[in-house]
Amino acid sequence: MEKIKVGSVSYLNARPLLYGLQRSEELMLQMELIEEFPSKIGGMLIDGSIDVGLVPVAVIPKMKEWHIITDFCIGATGDVASVCLFSEVPIEQIDTVLLDYQSRTSVNLCKVLLKHHWKIQPRIVETTGEDYRSQITGTTAGVVIGDRALEQRLVSSYIYDLATEWRIMTGLPFMFAAWIANKPLPPAFVDAFNQANSIGFEHLQEIIAANPFKAYDLHTYYTENISYDLTEEKRKGLLLFVEYLQKMEVLKPVM
Fold it and tell me: Residue 6 class from Cβ within 10 Å (0-12 exposed, 13-18 middle, 19+ buried)?
């Protein structure tokens, strides 16, 4: 039988969710696991290269059919720490914002916040490679996500946590990524997949030990910053975010 193609973000924040999947002989016989950065995994789900993925929720408006298949997500109820706008100057002095090429949801969240929360209109620039972080100087700010954002926290003077700013603006938590399928999947597979997602939370110390990271305390990250349960409040936040994406005039990037 053809294996179900499963894509996941390759960042540290996905490790607790992947722990049980990678240790389930039953599931690994049924699926092929691919790890990449978020925007690439999102594109693969949209074009059908994979069947289900832990993908940025900003892909939802671009999909003909979508199904959230687990009770878990990558979200935040306060500071997420790893999705931020970094700058050397206060927000009102920023004139250019560099967008992380690895992101879909986070860069769109930043656009929503720029327009509706901070109410500023900086120049928006899409990036294509890692060197863009060296350009976060002066009045040029940058959105950085994932493990690289945790490192950038040691560099930048001003850190605007996008999950916190969203909460201030809307009163709702934010969901960055969820396990989304582009077609109905076998119920038995979905049940086993969902159960496997929960196992890693019983082994956080093992996960932390296996992924040494000097830039940030991973126990704090896993237990205080990332909120993994997919609650009704997070669903409300997701629906509101999608509504913003559908209605707002997207700020045009310059190449």
Answer: buried
